[in-house]
């Protein structure tokens, strides 16, 4: 499988950079990053990516609309949140949750779960 293309939705620049670094070390390609709900919605609907890592709270705004957008596009996602499982809506309880502060191994485990949920791509 080629490197999965990733969308990161995170409002804290240092956290987004750490997440991007871990993902790239793990063989993923970060193709877009968004730091607020409006930018995240635009990128979630228009960018070419395979999976996403989402913060739940972006600058005080809940990003609860994003999972539905991603599900309609058949893009698996993981939540990256300081709220743990309590920050995730029940409708998306099957999505992996990575608690902040996160480790490389936690990102690796979530990435593997998401890769297993990707639709099969035709051989290139």
Structural key phrases:
about 120 residues, alpha/beta, two-stranded antiparallel sheet, about 35% helix
CATH superfamily: Response regulator
Q: Which secondary-structure class do the elements indicate?
A: alpha/beta
Kindly state the percentage of residues in helix: 25-40%
- List the secondary-structure elements in sequence, H or E: EHEHEEEHEEH
CATH class call: Alpha Beta
Physical arrangement of strands within the biggest beta sheet: 2-1-3-6-7
Termini separation comes to 9 Å
Q: Quote the beta fraction.
A: 15-25%
Computed Rg: 13 Å
What is the overall silhouette? globular
By CATH, the topology is Rossmann fold
| Biggest beta sheet summary | 5 strands, parallel
Number of helices: 4
Q: What's the number of structural domains?
A: 1
Number of strands: 7
Instruction: Indicate the CATH architecture.
Output: 3-Layer(aba) Sandwich
Overall average residue pLDDT: 90
Low-confidence stretches: none
């Amino acid at each position: 499988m080629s490197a999965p293309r990733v969308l990161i939705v995170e409002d804290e620049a240092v956290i987004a950079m750490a997440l991007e670094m871990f993902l790239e070390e793990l063989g993923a390609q970060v193709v877009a990053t968004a730091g607020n709900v409006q930018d995240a919605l635009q990128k979630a609907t228009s960018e070419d990516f395979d999976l996403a890592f989402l913060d739940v709270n972006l600058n005080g705004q809940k990003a609860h609309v994003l999972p539905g957008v991603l599900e309609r596009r058949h893009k698996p996602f993981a939540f990256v949140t300081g709220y743990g499982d309590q920050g995730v809506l029940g409708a998306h309880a099957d999505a992996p949750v990575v608690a902040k502060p996160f480790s490389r191994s936690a990102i690796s485990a979530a990435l593997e779960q998401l890769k297993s949920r990707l639709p099969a791509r035709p051989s290139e």
